Structure formats: structure tokens, C-alpha cells
Automatic annotation (TrEMBL):
Residues passing through the membrane, by range: 37-60
Keywords for the protein's UniProt record, in alphabetical order: Membrane, Transmembrane, Transmembrane helix
Protein name: DUF4825 domain-containing protein
Organism listed in the record: Metasolibacillus meyeri
Keyword Transmembrane helix listed: yes
UniProt entry tagged with the keyword Transmembrane: yes
Amino acid sequence: MSDSQIKKGIDAVIGEERWLTEKKVQKMLKKPKKRRLISIIQPVFAVITIACLAFIIYLLPPASEPIRLGNELNIEQFAERLPKPAAEAVVAYLQAIVQQDYEALEQVSLTDVTASNKEIFLKYENVDFKTLKMIKVQSLDAGDLYQVYIAHKDVTDGEIYIHTLKVDRWGLNEFKVLEDIYEDWLVFEQFEAPKTLRLTSQEAPTAQIVQIDDYQPVAVNVQSPQKLNNINAIVHFMKKRSIQQGNNTIEYRGVFVILEKDGRYYEITSFKDDPQAQYFILESPATIHVINGEIGDNLRDVDYQLVYYNEHIDNFQSVRGQLSKTNGLTPFQTNLTDEPLYTFDGANTNIAFVQDGVLMQTTILDAMEMPLLLKELLTVRMVGAEIFDIQYQEIYTKRSTPYYYLQTLEEASKK
């Protein structure tokens, strides 16, 4: 077979089109390329990028998160019991929490947080704001600081909890809110008074000896001579001078009562700085009575300071309370002690007496075994020298226990 015949046979099998072209030969001679690294990295980078974006979105404050069911806040209750700027501060604080509005919260909050205000939002995340109610307001520090007691239902366990907010003056007519978010909220339990109370008495606190140059005189309406003859002392009403600490100026509020005796000055107490206030000073052979308010039938909100000069320590002791609405200034001579008893209403000192030349005081609520926050809803009302009851009071709720009778100065029982 000739070469031409062989070629014709091959062409008949593969066809006349040339398949082993120059281009295909060059392609076959090239080495195969390795797979590039970037083709492997791209999917991993995409996953990491998506995760980072999700984390950043989680940290950013929500722009307009819808209010959840149960977050309707009754704001009228605050305006009824607080001065307008203080009420507005509380409402702004709580509404910022309801709406999780970081910027609004920053404007009104003094609450300390470790990381961010998100901690505050998390603290309130189970609060049913429809049930949130103000149950008590207490004025502190001459009316520039208020403590607001709040109760609410928890949406997870159905329990009622209680906690407090403090509303403090921050400017001329501006208030801000602070609270301790790291303190566990307390379950709000029903108050039940025990049958018997074990009472303890302790020495009344002594006065602080001060430098008179730290004070400046203030004109007040004093309804008695300011010279105390029985103990050879003079009463001064003064304001404490402001002091500079670094870049901060510390201003002291209130009118201070200073007793001058034998060239020394004793700071006894301070009262709210009220230009309309009347001060009454009454002196008995053993004690001094300093009253801020009107002595009359209406003894509510009258500040009363009982002062006693203790010769053993050459200093004054004093106790402070509310004048008993039933007893007024009357001391009682009883079989419980050789000395007269002085009685007070309220949550602080309730009974005072002199024993062996020392002024002693008894706070009846100290005998109540219950959390302090719940105890702050209680007050004592004295009826005579040996009878009292305990009153539980919220803003819209008030009830009293049956009478307790003093068996001794160490024990009282219900009858």
C-alpha cells in the first residue's frame, strides 16, 4: 500500500477537518496551572465579614425598636407626688428604658454602669411597665433629693418586686435620676406585724465640735430667747460656708443649729432652709427643745430636736423625730423608768429618756425583722407613753396594727 493510500484511509476515519492544529499543540505543551489561594480564602473571608457585621449591628442602639406589649407607662402618677421637673426626669428615665433609647437615657441618667447603658436595659427587660406604680416618695436633703419607691410585676415569674430611684437636683431647675442596678430587687411581701417586739435602747449621738469660722450667721424667726440659762449656752442659727475642692465647689444646704458653751461650738442639727420657717426653743431643767414649724393643733411635718447636756463627757447629746400628734411636747412620768419619757412619732427615735446622766433613745422599728426597704414603708404612732401602733403606708394604701403595750422598756406586746 502506498503512502497516498494510507493517508486517504486515515482521512476517511477522522474526517477531513484538521484536529491537531497549531493552537491545540501549544495548549497541550503548557503546564497545568495551580489553583490560586484566593479562591480558597474568599468563602472564609465572606463568613468572617458577615459575623463581624452581625456583631456590630447587635452592639449599635436600635434606631426605632417598637415598644413591646406591656410597656405602656402610666406617667400621671409621678406628676401627682413630685415637683414638675423631678417628675419629668423620672418619666424621661423610664421611657428611655422602655424604648431602649441610648441618647435619651444619657440626657437624664446618673446611674453608674460598668460597660454601657445596655446594662440598664437588661435590668428592666422583664418589667411589665403596665403594672409599674410609685408607692412612696421621700424628700431628702432639704427637698433637693427625692427617693421614689417603685413596685412592678415581673413578666417571667409573676412576682411583685420593689426598688428605689433617687431623683437629684442637677441644675437650677433640672433633675437627674440614679439607681443601683447591681443590687437585686426585693420581692414585695405582705406586711405582717409580730405579736411581741423586743426593744433595745442605745445612747443618743453626741454633737460635733466645730470651728465657728466655717459658718456664717443667718437671720431666722426665733420665737424665744437664744440664751439658755440652765446650761449657760447660746443658740446660733447659721449657714455653713461652701468650700472649694479642686475644681469643684461643695455647697451645704440647710440652716444649722450651733450651741456655744464655754468658748466651744457644737453642731447640733440642721433644718431645711425655708425663709418662712419658725423656730421655737424651749428650755426645761434637763433638756432643750428645738422645733422647726408651727406649734399648734396640726403637728404634721414638724421637725423636733431634743437636746441634753451630758456632764460626764462635756458634750451635748440629741435625738430627732416628729412630734407625736397625740402627745405634743408632753414628757411622761411612768413606772417604766425613774426619769420622764419623751415620745416621738415616725420611723426614727420613738422613745427618749435620761438614764444615769446619759440620754438614751429607742427606735421601735429596729425590732422589726424585715428588709430595710420594706421597713421604710412603716411608721410608729405613739399613743401616750406606753401605747403605740405601727402604720403601713403607701401613697394610696394605709393600715395600722392593733395597739402594742410596753411591758418594759425592752418589750412590747399586742393585745
